[in-house]
Specification:
mainly alpha; 5 helices
Length: 80
């Protein structure tokens, strides 16, 4: 719970220097931490996160996680 809250807050802070940490947390997409990391990446909107989000989306089986990854990817690509 603490890790998911921390990942979520990183997106709220808005510092793109946190992108590498959030990308590493996508590997935990099977749980709430990955969901929060995907959401935060969408908020940050850094194009560097697009490829890792695409890769995580291909491997993800949870519909809720897939939805947040898709929305975050759309937000990132819309900002280019």
């Amino acid at each position: 719970m603490v890790r998911s809250e921390a990942a979520s807050r990183l997106g709220d802070v808005g510092d793109r220097r946190d992108v590498p940490v959030l990308v590493s947390l996508l590997k935990e997409a099977k749980d709430r931490v990955g969901w929060a990391a995907a959401r935060a990446l969408g908020l940050l909107g850094d194009p560097q996160a697009a490829a890792p989000l695409r890769a995580a989306l291909k491997a993800e089986t949870s519909e809720g996680n897939r939805q947040v990854m898709t929305a975050s990817l759309a937000a990132i690509l819309g900002r280019k």
